[in-house]
Amino acid sequence: MNIVLVGMQWGDEGKGKVIDIMSQKVDYIVRYQGGNNAGHTVVVGDKQYIFHLIPSGILHPGKICCIGNGVVIDPGVLLTELGDLRKNGIDFKRRFKISSLAHVIMPYHKNLDRLREAKRKNKIGTTGRGIGPCYADKINRCGIRMIDLLNPVVLRAKLKDNLKEKNEIFKKVYQHPGFSFKEIYAQYLGYGELFSPYICNTAALLSKAVARKKDILLEGAQGTFLDIDFGTYPFVTSSSTTSGGACIGTGISPDKIDKVVGVCKAYTTRVGEGPFPTEFPAPFGKVMRDKGNEFGATTGRPRRCGWFDALIAKESVMLNGITEVAIMKMDVLDGLKEVKICTAYKYKGKIFKEFPSDLEVLTKAIPVYKTMRGWPHQDSKPRSFKQLHHCARTYLAALQDILGAKITMVSIGSARKESVFI
Ligand code: IMO
Ligand code: MG
Protein backbone atom coordinates (compact mmCIF):
# COMPACT_ATOMS: atom_id res chain seq x y z
CA MET A 1 0.00 0.00 0.00
CA ASN A 2 1.42 3.39 -0.97
CA ILE A 3 0.05 6.24 1.11
CA VAL A 4 0.43 9.99 0.76
CA LEU A 5 0.15 12.01 3.94
CA VAL A 6 -0.70 15.70 3.62
CA GLY A 7 -1.30 18.64 5.89
CA MET A 8 -4.82 19.99 5.39
CA GLN A 9 -4.37 23.54 6.69
CA TRP A 10 -1.41 25.95 6.81
CA GLY A 11 1.19 23.51 8.09
CA ASP A 12 2.05 22.49 11.66
CA GLU A 13 -0.91 20.14 11.80
CA GLY A 14 1.05 17.50 13.70
CA LYS A 15 2.21 15.55 10.66
CA GLY A 16 5.38 14.42 12.45
CA LYS A 17 3.46 12.41 15.03
CA VAL A 18 1.18 10.74 12.46
CA ILE A 19 4.12 9.92 10.19
CA ASP A 20 5.93 8.40 13.14
CA ILE A 21 2.94 6.18 13.95
CA MET A 22 2.29 5.22 10.32
CA SER A 23 5.97 4.51 9.71
CA GLN A 24 5.71 1.35 11.81
CA LYS A 25 3.60 -0.25 9.11
CA VAL A 26 5.56 0.71 5.99
CA ASP A 27 8.96 -0.12 4.52
CA TYR A 28 9.88 3.21 2.94
CA ILE A 29 9.26 6.79 4.07
CA VAL A 30 9.85 9.54 1.53
CA ARG A 31 9.82 13.34 1.69
CA TYR A 32 8.60 14.78 -1.60
CA GLN A 33 8.65 18.58 -1.39
CA GLY A 34 9.68 21.55 0.70
CA GLY A 35 12.93 21.78 2.59
CA ASN A 36 14.03 22.82 6.03
CA ASN A 37 11.15 25.26 6.24
CA ALA A 38 9.37 22.21 7.68
CA GLY A 39 9.61 21.28 11.34
CA HIS A 40 8.24 17.84 12.18
CA THR A 41 8.18 17.06 15.88
CA VAL A 42 8.18 13.50 17.19
CA VAL A 43 8.08 12.66 20.89
CA VAL A 44 9.43 9.27 21.97
CA GLY A 45 9.38 8.68 25.71
CA ASP A 46 10.76 11.84 27.27
CA LYS A 47 12.80 12.69 24.18
CA GLN A 48 11.69 15.15 21.52
CA TYR A 49 13.07 15.06 17.98
CA ILE A 50 12.50 17.81 15.43
CA PHE A 51 13.12 16.89 11.80
CA HIS A 52 13.46 19.51 9.10
CA LEU A 53 14.70 17.44 6.17
CA ILE A 54 15.07 13.81 7.10
CA PRO A 55 11.81 11.85 7.02
CA SER A 56 10.40 11.52 10.53
CA GLY A 57 10.27 7.73 9.97
CA ILE A 58 14.04 7.48 10.48
CA LEU A 59 13.47 6.74 14.17
CA HIS A 60 12.16 3.28 13.23
CA PRO A 61 15.02 0.82 12.75
CA GLY A 62 15.18 -0.88 9.40
CA LYS A 63 12.96 1.58 7.53
CA ILE A 64 14.37 3.11 4.39
CA CYS A 65 14.09 6.90 4.35
CA CYS A 66 14.46 8.95 1.20
CA ILE A 67 14.64 12.61 0.35
CA GLY A 68 12.88 12.81 -3.01
CA ASN A 69 13.75 14.92 -6.05
CA GLY A 70 11.03 17.46 -5.19
CA VAL A 71 12.77 18.51 -1.98
CA VAL A 72 15.24 21.39 -1.74
CA ILE A 73 18.24 20.55 0.45
CA ASP A 74 20.37 22.83 2.56
CA PRO A 75 23.45 20.59 2.92
CA GLY A 76 24.61 22.26 6.14
CA VAL A 77 21.25 21.60 7.79
CA LEU A 78 21.19 18.02 6.56
CA LEU A 79 24.65 17.46 7.96
CA THR A 80 23.61 18.74 11.38
CA GLU A 81 20.48 16.60 11.32
CA LEU A 82 22.45 13.47 10.45
CA GLY A 83 24.98 14.35 13.17
CA ASP A 84 22.15 14.59 15.72
CA LEU A 85 20.89 11.15 14.69
CA ARG A 86 24.38 9.75 15.15
CA LYS A 87 24.61 11.37 18.60
CA ASN A 88 21.33 9.72 19.56
CA GLY A 89 22.60 6.34 18.45
CA ILE A 90 20.24 6.07 15.49
CA ASP A 91 21.88 4.12 12.70
CA PHE A 92 20.93 5.33 9.23
CA LYS A 93 23.94 4.34 7.14
CA ARG A 94 22.35 1.83 4.81
CA ARG A 95 18.81 3.14 4.96
CA PHE A 96 19.07 6.81 4.16
CA LYS A 97 18.92 7.94 0.50
CA ILE A 98 19.00 11.29 -1.25
CA SER A 99 17.71 11.84 -4.76
CA SER A 100 20.47 12.89 -7.14
CA LEU A 101 17.93 15.26 -8.71
CA ALA A 102 17.01 17.18 -5.56
CA HIS A 103 17.96 20.84 -5.76
CA VAL A 104 20.50 22.37 -3.42
CA ILE A 105 19.95 25.51 -1.35
CA MET A 106 23.00 27.74 -1.87
CA PRO A 107 24.17 30.54 0.44
CA TYR A 108 22.86 33.13 -2.01
CA HIS A 109 19.36 31.65 -1.82
CA LYS A 110 19.21 32.20 1.91
CA ASN A 111 20.44 35.76 1.67
CA LEU A 112 18.12 36.56 -1.19
CA ASP A 113 15.15 35.17 0.74
CA ARG A 114 15.88 37.49 3.68
CA LEU A 115 16.83 40.53 1.61
CA ARG A 116 13.71 40.25 -0.55
CA GLU A 117 11.50 39.94 2.50
CA ALA A 118 13.13 42.97 4.09
CA LYS A 119 12.60 45.04 0.95
CA ARG A 120 9.01 43.99 0.21
CA LYS A 121 6.11 46.06 1.46
CA ASN A 122 3.78 43.07 1.39
CA LYS A 123 5.78 40.54 3.32
CA ILE A 124 5.12 36.81 3.06
CA GLY A 125 6.75 36.03 6.40
CA THR A 126 8.94 33.27 4.95
CA THR A 127 11.10 31.10 7.15
CA GLY A 128 14.18 32.76 5.62
CA ARG A 129 15.66 29.40 4.69
CA GLY A 130 16.13 30.16 0.99
CA ILE A 131 13.25 27.93 -0.09
CA GLY A 132 11.59 30.32 -2.58
CA PRO A 133 14.81 31.44 -4.33
CA CYS A 134 15.98 27.82 -4.65
CA TYR A 135 12.73 26.68 -6.27
CA ALA A 136 12.81 29.81 -8.46
CA ASP A 137 16.25 28.79 -9.75
CA LYS A 138 14.96 25.27 -10.39
CA ILE A 139 12.19 26.63 -12.59
CA ASN A 140 14.58 29.18 -14.10
CA ARG A 141 16.83 26.26 -15.08
CA CYS A 142 19.89 27.51 -13.24
CA GLY A 143 19.56 25.42 -10.09
CA ILE A 144 22.25 23.15 -8.71
CA ARG A 145 21.29 19.55 -7.99
CA MET A 146 22.74 17.03 -5.54
CA ILE A 147 24.39 15.13 -8.38
CA ASP A 148 26.26 18.29 -9.38
CA LEU A 149 28.04 18.29 -6.02
CA LEU A 150 29.74 15.07 -7.09
CA ASN A 151 31.07 16.54 -10.32
CA PRO A 152 33.65 19.33 -9.88
CA VAL A 153 33.52 20.30 -13.56
CA VAL A 154 29.74 20.71 -13.68
CA LEU A 155 29.59 22.44 -10.30
CA ARG A 156 32.30 24.90 -11.32
CA ALA A 157 30.55 25.86 -14.56
CA LYS A 158 27.10 26.23 -12.95
CA LEU A 159 28.32 28.13 -9.92
CA LYS A 160 30.47 30.50 -12.00
CA ASP A 161 27.54 31.30 -14.25
CA ASN A 162 25.16 31.78 -11.34
CA LEU A 163 27.45 33.98 -9.30
CA LYS A 164 28.17 36.23 -12.27
CA GLU A 165 24.50 37.14 -12.47
CA LYS A 166 23.61 36.92 -8.79
CA ASN A 167 26.51 38.96 -7.47
CA GLU A 168 25.51 41.79 -9.76
CA ILE A 169 21.97 41.66 -8.41
CA PHE A 170 23.23 41.52 -4.83
CA LYS A 171 25.43 44.57 -5.35
CA LYS A 172 23.09 46.70 -7.45
CA VAL A 173 19.72 45.91 -5.92
CA TYR A 174 20.56 45.02 -2.35
CA GLN A 175 23.89 46.78 -1.68
CA HIS A 176 25.24 43.41 -0.56
CA PRO A 177 28.89 42.52 -1.33
CA GLY A 178 27.96 39.22 -3.01
CA PHE A 179 29.61 35.79 -2.69
CA SER A 180 33.03 34.34 -3.33
CA PHE A 181 33.19 31.51 -5.85
CA LYS A 182 36.17 29.90 -4.16
CA GLU A 183 34.54 29.56 -0.78
CA ILE A 184 31.23 28.17 -1.96
CA TYR A 185 32.87 25.85 -4.48
CA ALA A 186 35.15 24.27 -1.88
CA GLN A 187 32.41 24.03 0.72
CA TYR A 188 29.83 22.45 -1.59
CA LEU A 189 32.30 19.97 -3.12
CA GLY A 190 33.01 18.97 0.48
CA TYR A 191 29.30 18.39 1.05
CA GLY A 192 29.21 16.29 -2.12
CA GLU A 193 31.93 14.05 -0.75
CA LEU A 194 30.15 13.62 2.57
CA PHE A 195 26.79 12.86 0.97
CA SER A 196 28.02 10.69 -1.91
CA PRO A 197 27.22 7.38 -0.12
CA TYR A 198 23.56 8.41 0.05
CA ILE A 199 22.98 10.10 -3.31
CA CYS A 200 21.24 7.84 -5.83
CA ASN A 201 18.39 7.49 -8.29
CA THR A 202 15.61 7.32 -5.71
CA ALA A 203 12.90 7.10 -8.39
CA ALA A 204 14.43 3.81 -9.58
CA LEU A 205 14.83 2.61 -6.01
CA LEU A 206 11.18 3.34 -5.25
CA SER A 207 10.01 1.81 -8.50
CA LYS A 208 11.73 -1.45 -7.53
CA ALA A 209 10.16 -1.22 -4.08
CA VAL A 210 6.72 -0.84 -5.65
CA ALA A 211 7.37 -3.82 -7.91
CA ARG A 212 8.32 -5.89 -4.84
CA LYS A 213 5.02 -4.83 -3.19
CA LYS A 214 6.77 -2.87 -0.46
CA ASP A 215 4.74 -0.26 1.43
CA ILE A 216 5.65 3.38 0.97
CA LEU A 217 4.64 6.42 2.97
CA LEU A 218 4.99 9.72 1.14
CA GLU A 219 5.50 12.40 3.73
CA GLY A 220 4.13 15.81 2.85
CA ALA A 221 5.52 18.95 4.45
CA GLN A 222 3.71 22.26 4.97
CA GLY A 223 -0.02 22.22 4.27
CA THR A 224 -2.58 22.43 1.48
CA PHE A 225 -3.09 26.18 1.83
CA LEU A 226 0.62 26.80 1.49
CA ASP A 227 0.57 25.05 -1.91
CA ILE A 228 2.03 27.17 -4.70
CA ASP A 229 -1.11 26.69 -6.84
CA PHE A 230 -3.97 26.04 -4.45
CA GLY A 231 -2.85 27.94 -1.39
CA THR A 232 -3.55 31.50 -0.32
CA TYR A 233 -1.17 32.86 -2.97
CA PRO A 234 1.14 34.76 -2.63
CA PHE A 235 1.22 33.85 1.07
CA VAL A 236 2.34 30.33 0.32
CA THR A 237 5.49 28.28 0.06
CA SER A 238 7.11 27.55 -3.31
CA SER A 239 6.30 23.86 -3.75
CA SER A 240 3.32 21.60 -4.48
CA THR A 241 2.27 20.56 -1.01
CA THR A 242 -0.88 18.80 -2.18
CA SER A 243 -0.97 15.06 -2.85
CA GLY A 244 -0.25 15.53 -6.56
CA GLY A 245 3.17 16.83 -5.53
CA ALA A 246 4.00 13.37 -4.18
CA CYS A 247 4.24 11.93 -7.69
CA ILE A 248 6.22 14.84 -9.12
CA GLY A 249 8.50 14.93 -6.11
CA THR A 250 9.38 11.23 -6.08
CA GLY A 251 8.89 9.85 -9.58
CA ILE A 252 6.26 7.40 -8.33
CA SER A 253 3.50 7.36 -10.93
CA PRO A 254 -0.06 8.37 -9.95
CA ASP A 255 -1.45 4.88 -10.59
CA LYS A 256 0.72 3.58 -7.74
CA ILE A 257 -0.87 5.77 -5.06
CA ASP A 258 -3.44 3.82 -3.04
CA LYS A 259 -4.60 6.26 -0.41
CA VAL A 260 -4.31 9.85 0.80
CA VAL A 261 -4.45 10.58 4.52
CA GLY A 262 -5.04 14.15 5.71
CA VAL A 263 -3.74 15.61 8.95
CA CYS A 264 -5.77 18.40 10.46
CA LYS A 265 -5.77 20.24 13.76
CA ALA A 266 -9.00 20.36 15.78
CA TYR A 267 -8.67 24.13 15.30
CA THR A 268 -6.56 26.17 12.88
CA THR A 269 -3.13 27.80 13.02
CA ARG A 270 -0.91 29.68 10.63
CA VAL A 271 2.62 31.13 10.85
CA GLY A 272 3.72 34.05 8.75
CA GLU A 273 1.56 36.55 6.93
CA GLY A 274 -1.59 36.04 4.87
CA PRO A 275 -5.35 35.79 5.24
CA PHE A 276 -6.79 33.73 8.09
CA PRO A 277 -10.56 34.28 8.36
CA THR A 278 -11.15 32.39 11.60
CA GLU A 279 -8.21 33.88 13.52
CA PHE A 280 -8.96 34.46 17.21
CA PRO A 281 -8.96 38.03 18.51
CA ALA A 282 -5.72 38.88 20.33
CA PRO A 283 -6.43 38.05 24.02
CA PHE A 284 -8.09 34.69 23.33
CA GLY A 285 -5.50 33.99 20.63
CA LYS A 286 -2.76 34.29 23.21
CA VAL A 287 -4.54 32.02 25.66
CA MET A 288 -4.93 29.33 22.99
CA ARG A 289 -1.37 29.78 21.70
CA ASP A 290 0.01 29.17 25.18
CA LYS A 291 -2.38 26.31 25.81
CA GLY A 292 -1.46 24.59 22.56
CA ASN A 293 2.22 25.60 22.77
CA GLU A 294 1.78 27.07 19.31
CA PHE A 295 5.29 28.23 18.54
CA GLY A 296 7.07 27.29 15.32
CA ALA A 297 9.32 24.23 15.42
CA THR A 298 11.54 25.81 12.75
CA THR A 299 11.67 29.52 13.56
CA GLY A 300 10.18 29.66 17.06
CA ARG A 301 7.71 32.28 15.82
CA PRO A 302 4.35 32.46 17.63
CA ARG A 303 1.65 30.82 15.54
CA ARG A 304 -1.63 32.59 14.86
CA CYS A 305 -4.57 30.53 16.14
CA GLY A 306 -8.25 30.34 15.20
CA TRP A 307 -11.38 28.18 15.06
CA PHE A 308 -11.73 25.18 12.79
CA ASP A 309 -12.37 26.37 9.25
CA ALA A 310 -14.57 23.87 7.44
CA LEU A 311 -14.21 25.68 4.11
CA ILE A 312 -10.50 25.09 3.91
CA ALA A 313 -10.73 21.59 5.35
CA LYS A 314 -13.38 20.59 2.79
CA GLU A 315 -11.40 22.12 -0.06
CA SER A 316 -8.40 20.16 1.17
CA VAL A 317 -10.30 16.86 1.10
CA MET A 318 -11.27 17.63 -2.49
CA LEU A 319 -7.86 18.77 -3.73
CA ASN A 320 -5.92 15.91 -2.17
CA GLY A 321 -8.41 13.07 -2.54
CA ILE A 322 -8.38 12.49 1.20
CA THR A 323 -10.39 9.53 2.49
CA GLU A 324 -8.99 9.34 6.01
CA VAL A 325 -8.28 12.12 8.46
CA ALA A 326 -6.24 12.38 11.66
CA ILE A 327 -7.51 15.11 13.98
CA MET A 328 -4.68 16.54 16.04
CA LYS A 329 -4.39 18.48 19.28
CA MET A 330 -7.97 17.76 20.29
CA ASP A 331 -6.91 18.11 23.95
CA VAL A 332 -6.08 21.80 23.40
CA LEU A 333 -9.82 22.47 23.12
CA ASP A 334 -10.52 20.78 26.50
CA GLY A 335 -12.02 23.07 29.11
CA LEU A 336 -13.64 25.58 26.74
CA LYS A 337 -17.28 26.50 27.37
CA GLU A 338 -18.04 26.41 23.68
CA VAL A 339 -16.26 25.52 20.47
CA LYS A 340 -16.92 26.87 16.99
CA ILE A 341 -16.74 25.58 13.45
CA CYS A 342 -16.70 28.06 10.58
CA THR A 343 -19.17 26.80 7.99
CA ALA A 344 -19.26 29.80 5.62
CA TYR A 345 -17.78 33.24 5.00
CA LYS A 346 -19.79 36.40 4.62
CA TYR A 347 -18.58 39.28 2.52
CA LYS A 348 -20.50 42.28 1.14
CA GLY A 349 -23.80 40.56 1.89
CA LYS A 350 -22.77 37.42 0.00
CA ILE A 351 -22.40 34.01 1.65
CA PHE A 352 -19.49 31.85 0.55
CA LYS A 353 -19.82 28.15 1.24
CA GLU A 354 -16.81 27.25 -0.83
CA PHE A 355 -13.28 28.48 -0.39
CA PRO A 356 -12.95 31.75 -2.34
CA SER A 357 -9.72 32.48 -4.18
CA ASP A 358 -10.12 36.28 -4.21
CA LEU A 359 -7.59 37.64 -1.74
CA GLU A 360 -9.88 40.55 -0.84
CA VAL A 361 -12.74 38.22 0.12
CA LEU A 362 -10.39 35.99 2.07
CA THR A 363 -8.86 38.88 3.93
CA LYS A 364 -12.08 40.65 4.83
CA ALA A 365 -14.59 37.81 5.09
CA ILE A 366 -16.55 37.44 8.32
CA PRO A 367 -16.79 33.79 9.36
CA VAL A 368 -20.22 32.25 9.94
CA TYR A 369 -19.97 29.89 12.89
CA LYS A 370 -21.77 26.83 14.12
CA THR A 371 -21.36 26.98 17.90
CA MET A 372 -21.22 23.77 19.88
CA ARG A 373 -20.94 22.84 23.54
CA GLY A 374 -17.42 22.46 24.85
CA TRP A 375 -16.17 19.68 27.12
CA PRO A 376 -14.24 19.63 30.37
CA HIS A 377 -10.60 18.75 30.73
CA GLN A 378 -10.32 15.05 31.48
CA ASP A 379 -7.94 14.10 34.27
CA SER A 380 -7.16 10.66 32.96
CA LYS A 381 -6.39 10.56 29.25
CA PRO A 382 -9.02 8.71 27.24
CA ARG A 383 -7.73 5.43 25.81
CA SER A 384 -10.48 4.89 23.29
CA PHE A 385 -12.91 6.94 21.22
CA LYS A 386 -15.70 5.94 23.60
CA GLN A 387 -13.80 7.40 26.55
CA LEU A 388 -13.75 10.86 24.97
CA HIS A 389 -16.31 13.21 26.52
CA HIS A 390 -19.62 12.97 24.67
CA CYS A 391 -19.42 16.65 23.64
CA ALA A 392 -15.97 16.03 22.16
CA ARG A 393 -17.40 13.11 20.21
CA THR A 394 -20.26 15.30 18.97
CA TYR A 395 -17.72 17.87 17.78
CA LEU A 396 -15.74 15.18 15.95
CA ALA A 397 -18.91 13.79 14.40
CA ALA A 398 -19.72 17.28 13.10
CA LEU A 399 -16.23 17.56 11.60
CA GLN A 400 -16.49 14.15 9.95
CA ASP A 401 -19.86 15.06 8.53
CA ILE A 402 -18.51 18.27 7.03
CA LEU A 403 -15.33 16.69 5.69
CA GLY A 404 -16.95 13.69 4.07
CA ALA A 405 -13.88 11.66 5.02
CA LYS A 406 -13.46 9.23 7.87
CA ILE A 407 -11.72 10.37 11.04
CA THR A 408 -9.52 7.41 11.90
CA MET A 409 -7.31 8.92 14.57
CA VAL A 410 -7.66 11.60 17.24
CA SER A 411 -4.58 12.91 18.99
CA ILE A 412 -4.86 14.08 22.59
CA GLY A 413 -1.22 14.77 23.41
CA SER A 414 2.21 14.72 21.84
CA ALA A 415 3.28 11.24 22.92
CA ARG A 416 2.74 8.22 20.67
CA LYS A 417 0.31 6.62 23.11
CA GLU A 418 -1.79 9.76 23.52
CA SER A 419 -3.88 8.86 20.50
CA VAL A 420 -7.19 7.12 20.00
CA PHE A 421 -7.93 5.15 16.87
CA ILE A 422 -11.36 4.67 15.39
P1 IMO B 1 5.58 22.14 8.40
O1 IMO B 1 6.07 21.03 7.49
C1 IMO B 1 4.04 26.16 8.88
C2 IMO B 1 5.13 29.14 5.86
C3 IMO B 1 5.99 30.29 6.34
C4 IMO B 1 5.52 31.38 5.40
C5 IMO B 1 5.29 30.66 4.09
C6 IMO B 1 6.43 30.76 3.11
O2 IMO B 1 6.28 22.22 9.71
O3 IMO B 1 4.10 22.10 8.53
P2 IMO B 1 8.83 29.64 2.98
O4 IMO B 1 10.00 29.77 3.92
O5 IMO B 1 8.34 28.25 2.80
O6 IMO B 1 9.07 30.35 1.69
O7 IMO B 1 7.66 30.47 3.73
O8 IMO B 1 5.10 29.29 4.45
N1 IMO B 1 5.67 27.80 6.14
C7 IMO B 1 5.21 26.99 7.12
N2 IMO B 1 4.28 27.19 8.06
N3 IMO B 1 4.64 24.97 8.80
C8 IMO B 1 5.55 24.72 7.84
O9 IMO B 1 6.04 23.49 7.62
C9 IMO B 1 5.91 25.78 6.97
N4 IMO B 1 6.78 25.91 5.95
C10 IMO B 1 6.61 27.13 5.44
O10 IMO B 1 5.73 30.60 7.67
O11 IMO B 1 4.27 31.89 5.83
MG1 MG C 1 6.18 24.02 10.92
List the main descriptive attributes of the protein structure presented here:
422 residues; alpha/beta; Adenylosuccinate Synthetase, Chain A, domain 1; Adenylosuccinate Synthetase, subunit A, domain 2; Adenylosuccinate Synthetase, Chain A, domain 3; 3 domains; ten-stranded mixed β-sheet; four-stranded mixed β-sheet; 12 helices; 33% helix; globular; binds 6-O-phosphoryl inosine monophosphate; binds magnesium ion
Folded structure, characterized:
The chain has 422 residues and is an alpha/beta fold. It folds into three domains: 161 residues, Adenylosuccinate Synthetase, subunit A, domain 1 (Adenylosuccinate Synthetase, Chain A, domain 1, 3-Layer(aba) Sandwich); 93 residues, Orthogonal Bundle (Adenylosuccinate Synthetase, subunit A, domain 2), CATH 1.10.300; 156 residues, Alpha-Beta Complex (Adenylosuccinate Synthetase, Chain A, domain 3). Helix content is 33%, strand content 21%. Strand 16 and strand 17 form a beta hairpin. Helix 3 crosses helix 4 and helix 5 packs across helix 6. The chain is globular and about 65 Å long. The mean pLDDT is 96. The site of 6-O-phosphoryl inosine monophosphate has 25 residues, from helix 4.
Could you outline the blueprint of secondary structure elements for this entry?
Layout: E1 2-7, H1 15-23, E2 28-31, E3 40-44, E4 47-51, E5 64-67, E6 72-73, H2 75-87, E7 96-99, E8 103-104, H3 107-119, H4 131-140, H5 152-174, H6 181-195, E9 199-200, H7 202-211, E10 216-219, H8 244-248, E11 259-265, E12 268-270, H9 282-291, E13 304-306, E14 308-309, H10 310-320, E15 324-328, E16 338-347, E17 350-352, H11 359-364, E18 366-373, H12 390-403, E19 406-411, E20 419-421
Parallel strand pairs: 1-10, 1-11, 2-5, 2-10, 5-7, 6-8, 7-9, 11-15, 14-16, 15-19
Antiparallel strand pairs: 3-4, 12-13, 16-17, 16-18, 19-20
Bound molecules: 6-O-phosphoryl inosine monophosphate and magnesium ion.
6-O-phosphoryl inosine monophosphate binds at residues 7, 10-12, 37-40, 124-127, 129, 131-132, 221-223, 226, 235, 237-238, 271-272, 297.
